[in-house]
Design goal:
Residues 38-57, 157-213 are annotated as: Disordered. It comes from Paenibacillus odorifer. Residues 38-47 have a biased composition (Polar residues). This is Phage minor structural protein GP20. By secondary structure, this protein is mainly alpha-helical. It has helices at 2-10, 15-32, 36-64, 71-108, 115-121, 138-148, 185-197, 202-212; strands at residues 128-129, 135-136, 175-176, 181-182. β1 (128-129) and β2 form a beta hairpin. α3 packs antiparallel against α4. The chain is elongated, with a radius of gyration of 24 Å.
Length: 213
């Protein structure tokens, strides 16, 4: 995150505090944003699936315009319709699975010791994607695991604001979390600027949300 390091330097943050601030940001960013490589991969798969469906629709339309259809041609059209429906159903199912996987990953990142192990304990058959796009049933299962297998989860430091805290410099309030004292005011100022800069990602969030609906 060289861009972040340069921004901190421009704000006058001491070099000794920059690495800690970048480390904290590196832990928080994956909780709120999908990696660009993952977004591109899903976007490419979506575009290809849509193209395949459109191509089949055109084939069906072209064949349907042919006068005096023979029995063989009618069978060919029926087969194309079946293949088209199968491809669309598979695409919809894959899209739902991607959304469930992303929701689980987002819910577990930074909160468990082994994401792969905890993911395997979640019964995906009981998860439902509501009309609003939210995954229903995930929170209840995670709470159940926290009760029955608490050792799987990292201990949260709920001092201060009650949220998940990391030791070291906080990017949001400009305080040294390990000492409880007021830190460099410029670091606090950076937190505000970083929050403002994330507004530039709203286009990506909108694109992602429209894709997953």
């Amino acid at each position: 995150m060289d861009w972040l390091k340069e921004l901190l330097k421009k704000l006058g943050v001491e070099d000794s505090k920059i690495d800690g601030a970048i480390a904290d940001a590196g832990k928080e960013i994956p909780k709120h944003f999908v990696p660009k490589s993952q977004y591109n991969e899903v976007s490419t798969a979506k575009q290809q699936a849509e193209k395949d469906v459109a191509d089949r629709d055109k084939q069906i339309e072209d064949l349907s315009k042919t006068a005096g259809l023979s029995d063989d041609l009618k069978k060919q059209i029926d087969q194309l319709k079946t293949d088209n429906k199968t491809a669309k159903d598979k695409y919809d199912a894959d899209l739902q699975q991607i959304k469930l996987d992303n929701a689980i990953t987002a819910a577990l990142t930074g909160k468990v010791h082994n994401e792969k192990h905890v993911t395997g304990l979640i019964d995906k058959e009981k998860l439902v994607i509501g009309d609003d796009g939210k995954v229903v049933g995930l929170e209840e299962q995670l709470k159940g695991l926290q009760t029955s297998d608490a050792y799987l989860f990292k201990t949260e430091d709920k001092g201060g604001g009650g949220g998940f805290k990391f030791k070291g410099t906080s990017l949001l309030d400009g305080k040294d979390q390990s000492k409880g004292e007021q830190g460099d005011e410029k670091v606090g100022s950076f937190g505000k600027q970083l929050a403002e800069s994330t507004k530039g990602n709203e286009g990506l969030d909108t694109a992602r949300e429209s894709y997953f609906k």
